[in-house]
What we know:
Blueprint: E1 2-4, H1 17-32, H2 49-53, H3 58-63, H4 71-91, H5 93-121, H6 126-129, H7 143-150, E2 156-159, E3 162-165, H8 168-178, H9 182-199, H10 205-208, H11 213-221, H12 223-227, E4 243-245
Antiparallel strand pairs: 1-4, 2-3
Helix pairs in contact: 1-4, 4-5, 4-8, 5-9, 7-9
Amino acid sequence: MATVLSQYSATGFHRATVSKALLGGIFLSSTAVNVPWSSHLQKYLFCDSSDVILRGQVWKLLVSRLAFPNAKEIFCVAILIYYFRIFERRFGSQKFASFLLITSTISTIMELFTVHAVKTVLPDLSDKIGSLPPGPYSLVFPLFVYFWYDVPKGAGTHLVGIPITAKTFTYLLGFQVVGTSVNSAIGAFCGIMAGLLYKFDVLGMKSKFKIPKSLGDLFSATVAKLIESSPPSASSIPVGSLEFVGEF
């Protein structure tokens, strides 16, 4: 089903409080581990798969998801989250949060076993892969699936034979993050796979796994009240609208 997003879709975080909280959390945690007086905390972002699978140290896996150790990743992911807030505005905060929870869980599990399998089968690659990719890749890359399928290309042109559309810049940001290391590529790949599983409703996960409404109401009454954005003024509404195809 084809629909059209509001013209407000390109302004601020109005009706996108989950995205705003996510962006703020990632920015604060990533900044905290990159300033000189707390940079020693970066070591906790690197989690070896053996620590989790063989020793049961799940806390290391959870901590490794909290922040990015690289300034370039922080910058690129911040822009991506800002752009992808259109999905929250279109589908609602509770459904969007459920999507993030499900896909990030699946993606993280896939990352864990993929890295462990590669290191076990191909030990020569252990030096290149090292630990699990540090940072919340699993919260961003699943959204590229919906971006690919549901956001149209729009008008475009060609540069030295390469097609350039309104979506190209977003893909380039994603490649900037992926190109950081082999670990980053694994994190991005697992995130995209998790997004595909959700998109095509494998095992009926869209209907079976949802954040309880009571938790959604609690977030709306507490955190959302503190960070919610006001509607954009009429003067800030862009001319034209962004078409959106498909369902979440």
